[in-house]
Amino acid sequence: MTVVKGSLLKRFSPLASTSEQLRILEQTSVPEFQSTLNRHGHSELEAAEIKIFQINVGKVCNQTCAHCHVDAGPDRTESMTRDTAELCIAALSKTDIPRVDITGGAPELNPNFRWLVEQSRSLNRHVMDRCNLTVMYVKGQEDLGEFLAQHKVEIICSLPYYQERETDLQRGIGVFQRSVEALKHLNSLGYGIPGSDLILNLMYNPVGAYLPGPQSSIENDFKRNLARKYGVQFNNLYTITNMPISRFLEFLLQSGNYEMYMEKLVNAFNPAAISGLMCRNTISIGWDGRLYDCDFNQMLDLPVGHNAPRHISEFDVRLLNHRRIVTGRHCYGCTAGAGSSCGGATT
């Protein structure tokens, strides 16, 4: 099976345009996602009631991870302004959406991050922070753990593995040790401790071109090894499938694994995962205020469509609650195996 033309492979780079990434995905011989939905008795994918208000505050990050679907890093400049942040809070205040999910990049490096947390909590919304752990050692973030604990923010920490080699391979030398120290500090504040209301969850994704194993088994392995070796505790572990976009797409192409990986996703398509897809209960707001069905569509520059409002300034929860979802071949990543979402496996 010929999936990618050689000229595209040679031209692709981590900073390739989203249109070029979409062209690569379009030139695969795997079936269109919609045709697979139809074959399994599903018509057009539609959203259900929005339960999660996800704010991506930008691509600035203190790490440059090999798998990053955001293509985030210290050299990125995309960052949500206060004006856009205020539009987000204004829109949120007119709804009863219960959960606010703040992500990036390293969301804490956005100058409006703490304001967004404070404003969301003042509206009595549950707030989640997607933290890479090492950001706690960036200058000016020394009190980050205390701030999050004060506002009872749920922390979802990305940690590729419970061993040093695999984590540093994906994230950089020294990241694992600093991550463990950050987890210990969060434990000292009450995060992840039985009986505490401070929730500490971990996010796992495979280091390579394969699907994550059973979420419960991986969680047990992480809990046993982190507790035994480092005395670290946490509440839950979520698995997420690496999406064939951005840096991970580059890895697949350069390593010659793109054809195999796409076939693996298609062959593992699980119709039972559809009901739990994050696009069905989430609205994703980009750093510039544009609206997306999910964070992955955001990174491919695929805004909400089918006459739904496209910017946070036009936010209308009634029109967005049951919108038609924009799909593509990358969506196989969320429907493979046990399913994949920002909240882990969907089945």
Please tally the helical runs, counting DSSP H or I stretches of 4 or more residues. 14
What's the helix-strand series?
HHHEHEHEHEHHEHEHHEEHHH
Largest sheet composition: 8 strands, mixed
Q: Percent helix among the residues?
A: 25-40%
Please indicate the count of domains: 1
The portion of residues forming beta strands comes to 5-15%
Distance between the termini: 31 Å
Could you name the CATH class? Answer: Alpha Beta
* Global structural class: alpha/beta
Q: How many strand units? A: 8
Explain this structure.
- This protein has 347 residues and is of the alpha/beta class.
- The protein has one domain: TIM Barrel.
- Helices cover 35% and strands 10% of the residues.
- The chain is built from 14 helices and 8 strands.
- It has an 8-stranded mixed sheet.
- Strand 7 and strand 8 form a beta hairpin.
- The N terminus is likely disordered.
Task: Reconstruct the topology from this structure.
Layout: H1 6-11, H2 18-26, H3 33-39, E1 52-56, H4 82-93, E2 99-103, H5 113-122, E3 126-131, H6 144-150, E4 154-158, H7 164-171, H8 175-188, E5 200-204, H9 215-230, E6 236-239, H10 246-255, H11 258-267, E7 282-285, E8 291-292, H12 295-299, H13 317-321, H14 332-335
Parallel strand pairs: 1-2, 1-7, 2-3, 3-4, 4-5, 5-6
Antiparallel strand pairs: 7-8
